[in-house]
Write a structure and sequence with these properties.
With 361 residues, the protein is an alpha+beta fold. The protein folds into two domains: 235 residues, MetI-like fold (Orthogonal Bundle); 97 residues, no CATH class. Helix content is 60%, strand content 10%. It has 15 helices and five strands. The longest helix is centred in the middle third of the chain and has 37 residues. This is Peptide transporter.
């Protein structure tokens, strides 16, 4: 039986490889996931949530470069800070001009009108053994800065981590609840099935976004609250599909044979029934992943999702949508485009998996 199952898996994999858009979207998601995972190894802003900025640099165009005086941080990066950002980062002062005289740096803060800025000074002794090249640096913002003077590229990459995390956790929660309730309802039937089906219909009748908002308000605003709220609204479709699959599969002869051999209900469900019901669940999970990203972005846009200073694509759109009319539309369009690419990739992968796992082909 395992050989037959393996051959079906190989056939499905071969079908998937022939789907150009499915394979392309798979690698797009892999690239985004790798970039988000190793974000703090590649982004310019190493601070936690990429939140280091200067108001003097706000709303600068892509490719903007500024000279900075960097004050080194005395603390080294810990293992946790390598993956989640530093709490205390090296402070930098953007300057429009500077000169070094003896043991002092004289400079003017960066401004659109540098002639109005007064000259300030810093003693080189406070930089320790650092050389001038370590102190004076050119800082480049590849995608410009936002309205708080923060590096926009860094915020965009960290936003991808938030979206992927919310999708993964929400889908995981929905699978645990949906598969459990669907399998119990389909296998045991009777009053248990009637009660779970009633529960499914109750959740099904409530608009998803309204239910998420209600759960979010009950649990409070925050990062993990959004994970739970989105996950608790996506188990319904999984439960319905699993219930129908279990009702169909439990009538097969190998399930009857398992009953005759005295296997427990738990073993029959987990070892014999559920493995043969996973194909449609995988397809639904891909669609739910995309839906979770959209729901989280919608909540963040409404101010009910991830909170400041955690970057979220929905929150970034909300912060910058006014710039669409003020001549810098890319500040709102870039996170929207990133969201579009990620969501459409999951939807196309779901379609490719549906075709690959279709036993009628």
């Amino acid at each position: 039986m395992s050989n037959t199952s393996q051959s079906y898996t190989q056939i499905a994999l071969q079908r998937f490889k022939k789907d150009f858009w499915g394979v392309l979207c798979f690698w797009v998601i892999i690239c985004i996931a790798i970039t988000a995972t190793f974000a703090y190894f590649i982004i310019p802003d190493q601070s936690k949530n990429a939140n280091a900025g200067d108001l003097a640099l706000r709303s600068q165009a892509p490719g903007f470069t500024v000279t900075t005086i960097t004050i080194p941080s005395n603390t080294s990066r810990t293992w946790s800070e390598m993956w989640f950002g530093k709490e205390e980062v090296a402070k930098f002062i953007p300057v429009s001009e500077y000169h070094v005289q003896q043991d002092t740096i004289y400079y003017k803060n960066y401004s659109n009108q540098p002639q109005l800025e007064e000259v300030k000074s810093l003693a080189l002794s406070q930089f320790g053994d650092a050389s001038i090249s370590d102190i004076i640096k050119e800082k480049k913002y590849w995608l410009g800065t936002d309205n708080q003077g923060r590096d926009y590229l860094s915020r965009l990459v960290i936003g991808a981590r938030v979206s992927l995390s919310i999708g993964f956790v929400a889908v995981l929660i929905s699978l645990v609840i949906g598969i459990t309730l669907g399998a119990i309802a389909g296998y045991f039937g009777g009053k248990i099935d009637a009660f779970i089906l009633w529960l499914i219909n109750v959740f099904w009748s409530i608009p998803t976004l309204l239910l998420v908002i209600a759960i979010t308000l009950a649990l409070g605003k925050g990062f993990w609250q959004v994970f739970i709220a989105v996950g608790l609204t996506m188990w319904v479709e999984v439960a319905r599909v699993v219930r129908g699959q279990v009702i169909s599969v439990k009538e097969q002869q190998y399930v009857t044979a398992a009953h005759a051999l005295g296997y427990s209900d738990y073993r029959i469900i987990t070892k014999h029934i559920l493995p043969n019901c996973m194909a449609p669940v995988i397809v639904i999970s891909a669609a739910n992943f995309a839906s979770a990203i959209l729901v989280e972005s919608g909540l963040s846009f409404l101010g009910l999702g991830t909170q400041v200073p955690t970057p979220s694509w929905g929150a970034m759109i909300k912060e910058n949508y006014n710039y669409i009319l003020l001549g810098k539309p890319y500040l709102a369009l870039l996170p929207g485009f990133a969201m579009f690419v990620l969501v459409i990739s999951f939807m196309l992968i779901g379609n490719a998996l549906r075709d690959a796992l279709d036993v009628r082909k």
